[in-house]
Structure formats: structure tokens, C-alpha cells
Write a structure and sequence with these properties.
Length: about 160
């Protein structure tokens, strides 16, 4: 299997997201559901428990850790990420969602530097989009991340 993520440049500057990823020879794909940092006692059907208690940075760390574990459980890995979609809760001062304290590129870069440096924003990250939202499933959830990854020829 081969994954080639093409870098995105604007006016000669490297953007912190990829232009697109071309996948060839994959045996399939993993489409993860939206990942939040909900507490272990969260029971949406029984309307018990609640969202993750903590600031945006703590929620980002928990979500990225969940995504890593989910991908590995399903036979993929961070190495095979194709696309990320970030839903970030507002309000958004001044410069919009990218300037929001809930959007944590620093935490993502720290996480990827430890687990798969190629995906750091200053290197060659997968394509992504950032969508600002007024609310998520629970009032204290600040971010939700959807991931898509390839399944390699041989399980990781």
C-alpha cells in the first residue's frame, strides 16, 4: 500500500494541513465515528454521566489517544491517516475558529511529534477541515474529531 499526502502551499508558505492524500493498494478503509473526550460513565441512552471535564487541551489529548487506540484495534494506525475533520465549539473571538482557545494545534503537534511526526502541522499532515459549531452532544464537550484511515496490505 502507498499513501502520498501532497503538501498545501499558499503564496509559498506551507499550510498546516495537506492538500490531499492519494491512496493506492489499500485493502480497505477505516471510517471512525466522531470522537469526543466523554467521561467513562457517559451513557447517552440512559442519559447518565456526562462529557469530559477539562479544558480544550485535555480534551484534544484524550481524543487523539482514543483515535490512535481505535485505529490500532481496527487494524490500522496513525501512520495511515487519510483525513481529519475537527468540530470546534465556539464562541470564536476575533479571527474565528482558528483563533479560538478550543482549537489546539499545539496539542496536536505535540501528540503527533510523539507518535507519528510526519503528521505534525509543520511537516506533512493529512488533509483536514475545521468547522466551528455552536454546540456538541454535551455542554462541556469542546471538540469532536472524525478520522479516516487506510487499512494497510498487512495488519499493523
Amino acid at each position: 500500500m502507498e499513501l502520498v499526502t501532497h503538501r498545501k502551499f499558499k503564496s509559498g508558505l506551507l499550510m498546516p494541513w495537506g492538500k490531499g492524500t492519494v491512496v493506492s493498494g489499500a485493502r480497505g478503509f477505516v471510517y471512525l465515528s466522531g470522537n469526543t473526550a466523554t467521561a467513562e460513565d457517559y451513557d447517552p441512552a440512559g442519559r447518565k454521566g456526562g462529557g469530559f471535564v477539562g479544558d480544550a487541551a485535555a480534551q484534544w489529548r484524550a481524543i487523539l489517544t482514543n483515535i490512535k487506540a481505535d485505529l490500532e484495534e481496527l487494524g490500522s494506525a496513525l501512520e495511515y491517516l487519510i483525513r481529519l475533520t475537527f468540530f470546534v465549539k465556539g464562541p470564536f473571538p476575533d479571527g474565528g475558529v482558528l483563533s479560538s482557545p478550543n482549537f489546539r494545534l499545539d496539542v496536536m503537534d505535540d501528540f503527533f511529534a510523539e507518535h507519528f511526526p510526519k503528521h505534525c502541522s509543520y511537516n506533512n499532515p493529512p488533509p483536514s477541515e475545521v468547522i466551528g459549531v455552536a454546540a456538541l452532544a454535551q455542554p462541556d464537550i469542546l471538540v469532536e474529531v472524525v478520522a479516516v484511515a487506510a487499512l494497510p496490505d498487512k495488519p499493523s
